[in-house]
Amino acid sequence: MFDNPHFDNHETVTFVCDAASGLQAIVVVHNTHCGPSLGGTRVWTYDSPAHALDDALRLSRGMTYKAAMADLPLGGGKSVVLMPPGGRKSAAMFEALGRAIERLSGSYIAAEDVGSTPDDMLAIRRHTRHVAGLAPEDGGVGAPSPTTADGCLIAVQATAAAIGRDLAGLHVAIQGLGAVGYDLASQLAAAGARLTVADLDAAAVARAVRELGAEAVGPDEILGVEADVLSPNALGGVLNERTIPALKVAAIAGGANNQLERPQDGEALRRRNILYAPDYVVNAGGVIKMCEEVYGWSEAKVRERVEGIADRLGEIFAQSAQTELPTNIVADRMAERRFKAPITPVMEDVE
Ligand code: NAD
């Protein structure tokens, strides 16, 4: 465990097994310095339990950076449910996961993720209140993607401003027209941007062409489109040593998680003079929205924090220019300053 390359001083790793429901899960708390760890429950058929552990270690760490950078009273965590090939998830599994989360005394808050739904969160809720992402009729705030898309729009605008452009007439190449990408594309079109889009889903592409006046290109062409801004909103790892030399954009700002295949790809972008808005700064809208459910924040407070994405990017771009460090490294250091700050004892009266 401690030699795992993804292990980064994670606070706790809990292996959960419930024979009655067949649940096998791993709940990982990376860091709770700024508050309880929050992160989605991923339901996936992994090649092996070791891969599931790697995923949970990596994703929980990412959540710590995202929450710290957005200055939220939250830390980073993640849970993964290991599904056997062809296996079906059940309410009993999520109830068992809820009991395991309850035993963690509030250090981990579950939320929706790939493979899980608001109904699964409701099953967890039967055994613990440490869960977010419920449907509005069950007291939750609903899907986070509209707020994520709002944050992405603010990020594209801030990134465009940093290269001396505004949204009107800005040419944006959008990879991925799912929940986040399509919403972002609609808002960009409404602001007068020109769009070139790609998705594996031909219907989503046809809709963007019809409704937003977008130009369509194939999924394997989008990363080579000559445009002002590239906005990755599909997969991780799209910026790497194979794709970066072929990019024909001045900047990158999109909602996809883990866009850089390796940290050093940030330096490769800087050398090519391509301004990269770090992904976890851009796509923090969804986790900010979770604070409405977890802490009862008002919609106005959520909006204010989402608008703060522009200031955070401005600070990162300025520090990157000043220090000649790539933006991803500048962002990581800013986040680390928040969650690695000295810990104040809570028991002040104990000598
Ligand atoms: P989604 O599944 O709704 O959409 C993803 C889209 O990408 C789909 O339409 C899919 O067909 C398309 N796609 C997949 N591979 C592609 C390829 N090679 N080329 C072009 N298109 C491709 O997912 P989403 O919720 O919109 O999330 C998009 C990204 O943003 C993901 O990386 C996700 O992790 C990240 N993200 C989402 C949220 C959120 O609130 N939903 C928050 C933070 C980060």
Kindly describe this structure.
This protein has 351 residues and is an alpha/beta fold. The chain folds into two domains: 12-138, Rossmann fold; 145-284 and 311-336, Rossmann fold (3-Layer(aba) Sandwich), CATH 3.40.50.720. The protein is built from eleven helices and eleven strands. It has helices at residues 49-69, 91-103, 118-125, 145-162, 179-190, 202-212, 265-271, 279-282, 285-295, 299-323, 327-339; strands at residues 12-18, 23-31, 37-44, 75-82, 108-112, 171-175, 194-198, 215-216, 229-232, 251-252, 275-276. The strands form two sheets. The chain has a six-stranded parallel sheet with strand order 8-7-6-9-10-11, sandwiched between helices. It has a five-stranded mixed sheet with strand order 1-2-4-3-5, sandwiched between helices. Helix 2 (91-103) crosses helix 3 (118-125) and helix 4 (145-162) crosses helix 5 (179-190). The chain is globular. The mean pLDDT is 96. The chain binds nicotinamide-adenine-dinucleotide (NAD).
Short summary:
The chain is 41% helix and 16% strand.
Features:
single chain, 351 residues, alpha/beta, Rossmann fold, 2 domains, six-stranded parallel β-sheet, five-stranded mixed β-sheet, 11 helices, globular, binds nicotinamide-adenine-dinucleotide
Q: Layout of SSEs?
A:
Blueprint: E1 12-18, E2 23-31, E3 37-44, H1 49-69, E4 75-82, H2 91-103, E5 108-112, H3 118-125, H4 145-162, E6 171-175, H5 179-190, E7 194-198, H6 202-212, E8 215-216, E9 229-232, E10 251-252, H7 265-271, E11 275-276, H8 279-282, H9 285-295, H10 299-323, H11 327-339
Parallel strand pairs: 3-4, 3-5, 6-7, 6-9, 7-8, 9-10, 10-11
Antiparallel strand pairs: 1-2, 2-4
Helix pairs in contact: 1-11, 2-3, 4-5, 4-9, 4-10, 5-6, 9-10, 10-11
Bound molecules: nicotinamide-adenine-dinucleotide (NAD).
